[in-house]
Amino acid sequence: MLTAPEIAAAAEALDRAERTRVQTGLLSLAHPGMTMDDAYAVQSAWVDRKLAEGRRIIGWKIGLTSRAMQQALHIDIPDSGVLLDSMEFPDGGEVPAGRFIQPRVEAEIAFVMKDRLVGPDITPEAVMAATDHLLPALEILDTRIVRADPRTGQLRNVCDTIADNAANAGIVAGARPVRPDGVDLRWTGAIVSRDGGVEETGLGAGVLGHPALAVAWLAARLARYGGAIEPGQVVLSGSFIRPIECPPGSRIVADFGGFGTVSCSFAREEADAGAGQ
Q1: Where are the domains of the chain?
Q2: CATH top-level class for 57-275?
Q3: Count of other CB atoms within 10 angstroms of residue 80
Q4: Confidence at residue 273, expressed as pLDDT on a 0 to 100 scale
């Protein structure tokens, strides 16, 4: 188990990496015995720093919901992070230059809750009944921790990812709410394009077989620590596509068919913008 000073130092390193846009080293390398509980403790300490600065929790993100990602990291459960009000970006808007280090984007279904969900033993039916509406969404990922240690070649593992707020950095939600009744989310999917070219496609079934199962998992995980998914909160249920790299100047459009579309663009750095004039 990490000590309280080690947890605080790790949270400070993550905060510094975000502010300076210089990634910090692998926590799993600095602390070889680090556990998932340690990682969530670091995440919580990082969130506490944000709350102390006046930020507000608006919901949750769920990650590692696809079988391929779980196999790659040798785990069999998802992970989760916290959504803050500072992470919201408008549909069709532009992410300012320099906001993120290495942004990537995933397509997801967002649940907006009307009732409190507290686990365990929450069923997908209970999740849908507690949902006010659904939205098409893009999750912006960022990596405040290096993906690989330059000296040893060691790769980031699940503890690094969890500590790094499950790599979450932003959310873009569509403006067209969809009622949860009568919707088969297994067959709800998206065609995701970057700069006009299709990059990825996927279906909701790629998220644990059904996105509501991911939300039920989150309710059960939070209940272990006395928490719950609260009314009004947004839950990003997990990606059904691979992450798409978003260098400056990228424009992302996700077409969810009957769910509508959601999009965003990433501003060019000033030097790049000037060069293109």
Answers
A1: 57-275
A2: alpha beta
A3: 24
A4: 52
